[in-house]
Amino acid sequence: VMLHSPLALSLLLIAVSSNLAMAIKKEKRAPQTLSRGWGDEITWVQTYEEGLYQAKKSNKPLMVIHHLEDCQYCQALKKAFAENDEIQEMAQNNFVMLNIMHETTDKNLSPDGQYVPRIMFVDPSLTVRADITGRYSNRLYTYEPQDIPFLIENMKKALRLIQTEL
């Protein structure tokens, strides 16, 4: 028996639309951003090449963070980095930002080895700043959570160098 009553039709519509709503809801998970936990408000570039292009175009230094998901030192630094308002603000406004979990082909980005975490700066003339280093002589570009104030100073140094040199 075909039901032509408005009730049957509306029940059918409700069933279809609630299934649809469930399907849409399932899809609407938070998208995985390029931030990988380093700062969701920051605009991250996807590749080193894109970072170089943006640095040159915007006349901002490029900050490259090499890290790995299963590295506890990276995780600790990431947490401190993401929770620091001054870093987040500078990263959002004054830098082209890249965090990557693989090595680049640019050997200048690993002058003293391919360890993680490693943070390096590239100025808008596309020069890797080997002169902006962290506190450790055995791993020049590594930072620990307690080195955040030092990293902030290095970010400011990278900005100053652009103004004085370029």
Automatic annotation (TrEMBL):
Matching InterPro entries: AGR/TXD (IPR051099), Thioredoxin-like_sf (IPR036249)
Keywords on record: Signal
GO CC, one annotated term: endoplasmic reticulum
Gene Ontology molecular-function annotations: dystroglycan binding
Signal peptide limits: 1-23
CDD domains, per the entry: AGR
Family, per entry: Belongs to the AGR family.
Protein name: AGR3 protein
Organism of derivation: Pterocles burchelli
